[in-house]
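User: Reviewer 2 asked us to show a designed sequence for the structure in our supplementary figure. I'm pasting the structure tokens here. Could you produce the per-position amino acids so we can include them in the response letter?
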């Protein structure tokens, strides 16, 4: 029996059986990009991971409403409550309207999601599209005495909130320690306490993005948008909230405080966080020069890259590690992932072409059938264990061995029967294409060209024109295609 889906909940620090509030409906919110620059690979790992979560929940039969926001205002330079709005700054430097910056980088983000074969969310709201709701939530917190206005800005009173609740329960931080470290690091300003965070910021005369509010002209704080949009589209309590580990504090901690302060209860049942990327064991950062954009990975145009790596190679590499673990990039690891990806796609191409061949008098091999059933069950069990794509890929390779044995004739169709064969076929295709969302990267006419060359190869071999045979073989190999001469006939595969 396949285990029930279990999710590691960052709020309770343990794996829990997934029980949505209103099955089969599932509400899932993921913090989307701040669209003032190109999205880095670390961010793409987060979105890729939750694309798999979304896909697998749908595969299990859940009706998922997936919301992923666009942050287009309120994200300040130091990710806290000071400095210039990053989008406003970019617009000023490039002499563009802020919404031009937003549109440019939103389009770039969407292009990347397509390149990585990710599904669009059901709803993709933006912060600027929900200014009215953010003002309303701020006013509600002021009315409840959990927020205060100073010089046209409104701040959440963390100390007052903490008297009846636990600020820091998601990240495991202690409010007294945070207040002490805040005193040591920052001077007194218009906040009552240094750990108080902005719900609404007063806009200086030169600030580009600004709206009228009960407290004067300003703009919303960064944390407020997700509380507003999550509750608007998924309800005051919903099932899953995800994002990168770097958002756990302060962003997600503040979200909890805002929603609990407004509605009186926790907004989310399961908090999920993806881990960071490293390069050769070091944390990726611009200052170290070891971070790179997806385009740099695809072109190989970066000092740390020995060669280009395709989008599906990068995706396969990321899926070979659990979403919550640190993932280390290296040329060696990427090259190994390219081999693994091609091996998996070769299997996909084979099993799609394969049809069951009835064999009269064939004796069923119960031991092999049992092995196959266990592998198929293990594929589901791995995904049910907190969406463990790494273990799932390992089991798919075990299933691929059976597919290759069928292809070469080492394993007969009759020995496993039609039902087991169809299970192999559906499981492999569903998990590779629909859950992991891996695909062949070559254009659609590429296979037709290869098939034509293989046909010429067969004809030349039949005529014993071995010089031509060798030339065709070498030409295909130079383009990453190997020709296989087998007992069952001539076939081709991507070079691994």
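Assistant: Here is a per-position design you can include in the supplement:
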């Amino acid at each position: 029996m396949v285990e029930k889906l279990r999710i590691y909940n960052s709020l309770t620090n343990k794996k829990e059986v997934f029980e949505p509030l209103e099955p089969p409906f599932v509400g899932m919110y993921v913090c989307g990009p701040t669209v003032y620059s190109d999205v880095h690979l670390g961010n793409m790992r987060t979105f890729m991971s939750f694309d798999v979560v979304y896909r697998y929940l749908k595969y299990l039969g859940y009706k998922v409403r997936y919301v992923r926001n666009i942050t287009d205002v309120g994200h300040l330079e130091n990710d806290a409550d000071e400095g210039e709005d990053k989008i406003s700054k970019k617009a000023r430097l490039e002499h563009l309207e802020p919404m031009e910056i937003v549109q440019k980088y939103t389009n770039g983000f969407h292009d990347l999601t397509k390149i990585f074969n990710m599904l669009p969310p059901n709803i993709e709201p933006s912060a600027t599209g929900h200014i009215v709701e953010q003002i309303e939530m701020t006013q509600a917190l002021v009315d409840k005495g959990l927020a205060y206005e100073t010089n046209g800005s409104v701040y959440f009173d963390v100390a007052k909130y903490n008297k009846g609740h636990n600020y820091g329960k998601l990240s495991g931080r202690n409010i007294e320690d945070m207040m002490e470290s805040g005193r040591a690091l920052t001077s007194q300003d218009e906040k009552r306490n240094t750990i108080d965070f902005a719900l609404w910021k007063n806009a200086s005369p030169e600030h580009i993005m600004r709206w009228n509010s009960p407290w004067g002209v300003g703009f919303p704080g960064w944390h407020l948008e997700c509380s507003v949009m999550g509750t608007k589209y998924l309800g005051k309590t919903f099932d899953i909230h995800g994002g990168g580990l770097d958002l756990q504090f302060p962003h997600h901690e503040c979200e909890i405080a805002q929603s609990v302060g407004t509605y009186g209860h926790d907004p989310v049942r399961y908090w999920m966080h993806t881990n960071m990327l490293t390069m050769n064991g070091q944390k990726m950062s611009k200052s170290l020069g070891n971070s790179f954009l997806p385009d740099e990975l695809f072109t190989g145009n970066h000092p740390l890259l020995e060669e280009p790596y395709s989008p599906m190679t990068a995706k396969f590499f990321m899926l070979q590690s659990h979403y919550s673990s640190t993932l280390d990039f290296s040329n060696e690891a990427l090259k190994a992932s390219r081999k693994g990806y091609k091996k998996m796609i070769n299997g996909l191409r084979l099993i799609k072409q394969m049809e069951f061949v009835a064999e009269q008098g064939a004796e069923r091999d119960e031991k092999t059938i049992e092995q196959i059933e266990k592998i198929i069950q293990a594929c589901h069990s791995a995904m049910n264990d907190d969406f463990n794509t790494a273990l799932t890929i390992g089991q798919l390779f075990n299933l691929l061995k059976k597919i290759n044995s069928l292809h070469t004739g080492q394993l007969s169709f009759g020995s496993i029967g039609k039902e087991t064969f169809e299970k192999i076929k559906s499981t492999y295709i569903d998990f590779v294409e629909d859950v992991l969302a891996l695909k062949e990267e070559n254009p659609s006419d590429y296979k037709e060209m290869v098939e034509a060359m293989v046909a010429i190869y067969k004809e030349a071999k039949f005529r014993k024109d071995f010089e031509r045979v060798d030339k065709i073989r070498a030409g295909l190999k130079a383009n990453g295609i190997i020709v296989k001469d087998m007992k069952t006939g001539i076939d081709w595969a991507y070079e691994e």
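For the response letter, you might also mention the following. The chain has three domains: 18-274, 279-435, 444-494. Residues 455 and 490 are 9 Å apart (CA to CA).
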